[in-house]
Amino acid sequence: MKNPVTTLGFASLRASACSASLAGWRGVAGVVGSVSVGAGGVGRAMGVVGVSLLVGGCAPLGDDLYPKPDDLSPEWQLDRVRVLAIRAEPPEIDLGQSSVLEGLVVDPYGDVALKVWNACPPDEDGGGDFGCIADLPTDGLSPDSLDLDALRDAGILAIEPIPGFSSPTYTPTCSDIRWPDRCTDNPTGCSDPSLDLAACCDQIGLAACPQLEKLYSLIQVAAIPGDALAPREPADPDAPPQETFDFNDVEVAFKRLVVSASPTPNTNPALARFHVDGLVVHDEDTVVEVDAGQTYTILAVLADDAAQDYTYVPSSCREPGDPPVPDACADPALQDPSDECAPQCRAEEPYVKWYATGGVVREPTTLFGFLDTTWTAPSTDDPVLVTEGDVWAVSRDRRGGIAWRRLRWRLRALADAP
Predict the structure, then answer these.
(1) How far apart are CA 97 and CA 89, in angstroms?
(2) What integer pLDDT is reported at residue 2 of this predicted model?
(3) Residue 65 has what pLDDT?
(4) Taking CA atoms, which of 110, 130, 154, 369 is between 20 and 30 Å from 274?
(5) Structure confidence by residue, pLDDT tens digits, 182-226
(6) Residue ranges in 295-416 assigned as alpha helix (H)
(7) Residue of 159, 161, 208 lying closest to 182 (CA atoms)
(8) Where are the beta strands (DSSP E) in 196-333?
(9) Left (φ > 0), alpha (ψ -120 to 50) or beta: where does 113 sit?
(10) Sheet holding 295-302, edge to edge
(11) Is the pTM higher than 0.90?
(12) Domain ranges of the chain
């Protein structure tokens, strides 16, 4: 069965240069029906010979010159491999709980062969808070050549689509957590003062440093193109193995996965549907037909429970050994506006980032309460005419929760062309 197509009639309506998705890094690694609207309407050492994946800054563009804004595509434009987001379900977990990971990897030309997931250890050299090193074989990534146990021991969570090792799931431990300085500088509250934070956490859990939102583990995914995986002969026979791997086209992203014992753990801000010039689009498989060069208003509608109430206490008000914070949203009597350390019930205000494979996005970031953007379909005057593609909306709640939704489109003027 062909995908349903929705037809829109004529309607006349109204970044950072080096973003995370543009960050360079070094290392390796038929129509069912139609509806018309009228006018107005990104590790550790492994037990295999490997080369390193490492997140860095913006990639140099020849002669060690860093890219300038005019050298880069607009933030919203999907003209190459991009990792737009990493979603954890659930996005906030306690010790011993597990989260399923998924990456929104847009691959316009089918370049990506593997997605490598790993958990970053807290104090890995070169990692910091912006990614980490992971080792991969230099002689090609064949399923038959990989030691999956060694990969797991090295912090690799999954390699998609390696059979039996392609479902990234993460369960945090005390040794994975990024402890803030105020915890390492103060007593932990454990019976043995000689214990470090990780060991203390093994005894008493997150009470070793009680906070609601500041503790996290770092997750990284690398999208690796197929042509980077083939074995290569080094230009210099005496060169070390890492010089045989072409890393320039690899895209890396990372996510801070919140670890807490919060009474109101975070959830992802799901998107329920789109409104395109008032036309409601529920199904992501629906193809919306548009007119070349025309501008449309696209509204992303959050699910009813997307904007969550949550309990908040400033980190400075919590000390090691303190009891868990009660749920101030369930018991408003706990809230005291005169006491800055009293639990507060706050409401999320998710925002949406917009991306497109063709046309022009006029407002790439839209804020809570105003989650509509304007998108102009590709014009027949464009040097390279894109006749079909996607608009992506990625919602973020500012606490680590992420969701996304795709709107498919094609140009109606060319839909029935021979």
Answers:
(1) 11
(2) 41
(3) 55
(4) 110
(5) 676 555 567 777 777 788 888 878 777 765 446 788 899 999 887
(6) none
(7) 208
(8) 216-225, 251-259, 271-276, 279-281, 287-290, 295-302, 309-312
(9) alpha
(10) 279-281, 271-276, 295-302, 372-376, 360-361
(11) no
(12) 5-178+215-308+348-414
